[in-house]
Every structure is written in structure tokens, then in C-alpha cells.
Fold this sequence. Notes:
alpha/beta; eight-stranded parallel beta barrel; binds phosphoenolpyruvate; amino-acid biosynthesis; cobalt; Phospho-2-dehydro-3-deoxyheptonate aldolase; DAHP_synth_2
Amino acid sequence: MSSREPWSPSSWQERRAGQQPHWPDTGALEGSLKTIAEMPPLIFAEECRSLQTHLGQVAAGNAFLLQAGDCAESFEEFSADNIREKLRVILQMAIILTYSVGVPTVKVGRMAGQFAKPRSSDFEKVGDLEIPSFRGHIVNDPTTTEAARMPDPERLVQAYNQSASTLNLLRAFTKGGFADLSRVHAWTQEFVAASPQGQRYEQLASEIERALSFMRACGIETEQNASLSEVDVFTSHEALILGYEEALTRKDSLTGEWYDCSAHMLWIGERTRELDGAHVEFLRGVGNPIGCKVGPTTTAEYLIELCETLNPSRIPGRLTLITRMGADKIEDGLRPLLRAVTDSGHPVVWACDPMHGNTFTAPSGRKTRHFDDVLREIGGFVRAHRAEGTWPGGIHVELTGDDVTECLGGSEELDDTQLDDRYQTICDPRLNGRQSVDLAFRVAELIRD
Ligand code: PEP
Ligand code: MN
């Protein structure tokens, strides 16, 4: 079996690798990969082990995972404001979830490296022309010309550099006072005051406020207490472009193990999860916590083999299964999988991606998702876990802190005619800042019920 065979950072090259760009100039590609291989790692092995320990707590039902960020990060929309606003929303959601679920929230951004996109077709038809599909800013440019869509290896280096700057700012914000509990809650109170659904959320927000007042009365000042003013936000992305991931894979001097130092956590997408494929081969050998998307066609037999291949030592927190079946399929589709994995004894984190199974094209022609479907999928996910006695470990969502109009619904009842107003994503539609905080309140209600 593949998991027993020797592994090296390049052993994936012997396997079929789906979704790789057709780089026109292999010399330039090798040059870029060599440059990246000589750059410092973006993260350190010890941080990955710390995240794995936290995720082990999620697997055991003692913590909740919030994994969130862009569908695809952009080279153009890259600014301190953009990063700060995304982080702010993630922190707000985390406090609402921590209070209502009653366990710590493990925060993982789809940030600082989430650039590459799998596509259903290698080509896109534009008029009479067939041009290469857009594969994310790490590969090409979305402009619909042949030249813009030509994969450019220089972009790999730019993606590394942007990831380094993003991570640097994330570290500064999360350790430098921005994440102070009282401050984040004050933003949530502003949100509640301005929200059309305000009354619905007021009770939960004032419960949190009372808890904070109680702490202050006991002499616990959040600003002076590192555990309340500093947070850990880990980074993650889909490990899609395997040459890039290999170039950042380094041996940990402490343990001698290999780590993919492009992010703390990496996941395998729905389109590249073949058991004998290159993506599974690559990720089985790195020490990082890893994830795999689980779509509606997944069978129990496949899933057990996947667990055996990716986590043969059955380390809690090593493997997160991210289900994305669609709101109508999740409850019945998930139950047999939960049963099979539980019976196998594999300690996995179960997370719900309520986005990718609920995408449709609106009458306006825009690709979108409805807030109600997103919530419905999470509802089905929670019910399936309740019925099987397993822990609904977390959510995995595409969001931005900005006031975009990409997903329908939410408390402001965004409709199809508004999608054009601020539709800014370069790939899938994201929840905007308000819809994201809305979602956290609604998930809190679901879990408390
Ligand atoms: C994604 O997470 O952006 C994505 C492409 O998901 P999936 O692999 O589940 O389709
Ligand atoms: Mn997406």
C-alpha cells in the first residue's frame, strides 16, 4: 500500500498530478522553484505541532475549528486594510462561537498562501477563442486574453513574497493588541446595534458583555492578560501546485521530520484527492496537520483508505475531513461516513464547508451562494453528528471583511439585483463582513439548541 512505501518531498512526481498548470517555459519554472527553495520557511515546525495539538482537542470534542478566508487571494487586492478587516471578522466570529459552543475556537485563515485554484476545465471559451482557464494569481491573470492566461512562473515567487508579508502582518495584529477580547467584542456590539436582526442577537451579545464585566470585576483586565489579548491565527491553503509546495518543504532540525513550510495546515481539494494521485502522495509525508475535502460522491471504503494513507499512526489532529456535499445531501450523505470512520477508530476532525456544494448561477449570470443554503448545510451537518454521537468539529467558510455583494441573503437580504454592485471576488463568491458575523450568531443558535 502507498502509505508503506518510501516517501520523499519529490516522490509525488512519480504519480499522476491533476490540476497542474502547463508552464510554457520549463527553464523559467525551474528558476522560480530554485529561488523559492532558497528562501526562508514561512512557518516553523513547532507551530504546526502546536496547531495539531489544538486540532487534537477538536477531534476529541473539546474545541471548535473556524477555518476561513478568501476563495482565492489576489495580487491586486493586497493591502493592510484588507488583511486587517478579514482578521477582524474571523476574531469576531471566534468570540461568538467560543462563548456559545463553550469550548476554545481554533482559528485558521485561508490566508497567506491561498492562491491556486483547481478548475473544471483546462480551457475557457471566450467568443470563438479557447484560452487557458484562470488558475489563481499564483499561475496567471484572470483577464480574458490568451497572453494574460499564459502561466507565468514569476508569479510563484510573487505568491511567496505576498504570503510572507501577509503572515508578518497577521503575526503583528494577533500579538500586538488588535485581538484584545474587549476590543473585538466592542466591534460585535456595534454590529448588533446596526443590524436589522439586532434584537435577535442582542441577548447573546449582552451575555458576552456580562461575562467580560464579571472578569473585570474580578480584576482580570484583558489588555494585561496575554491569553485574552493575544491569539493564535494559523494559516492554511489548498496544496495544489506541488512544485511550489515541494520547494518549501524542509527538514525540521529538531525531529528530522519533513514539514511543508508554506503554511501551518494544507488541504487536498475535491478534484485532486485520488488515493494513488500526486496530492495524496505529497501530503502523506509532511508533518503538518492536513485536510481533505469530502464531496457528495465519497464512499465509506474510500474514506477509510484515505485515513489509513494520510494518518496511519492515527494521530489526533493530524487529519481534518472537510465535508462539502450541498445543503440537500449533507444529512443523509454524511451519516454513513461518520459511522464508518468512527467504527474504524480513526480520530479525525470533522469540519463543514457549507460553501462549495451550494454554488449556483443567478439569473444575472453571476456565480453566487445563498446565505440560507449555507446555514442549511451547517444545520444538516450538526444534525447528522448529533444522530451519530460524533462532534461537529467546525466550519470552513469563504469570506472577506469587506462590504462585497457576492452571496445572496443574510440579515440585509441581499438580492440578485444587487450582486453587480460590489462583486469583487476573483473566484468563488464570499460572505461579506456582515453576513459572516450573522453566520456566527446563527451557528451559535444552532449549536446551543
Ligand atoms: C475551495 O476550497 O476553494 C475549493 C475549490 O473547494 P473544493 O476542492 O471543495 O471544490
Ligand atoms: Mn472556493
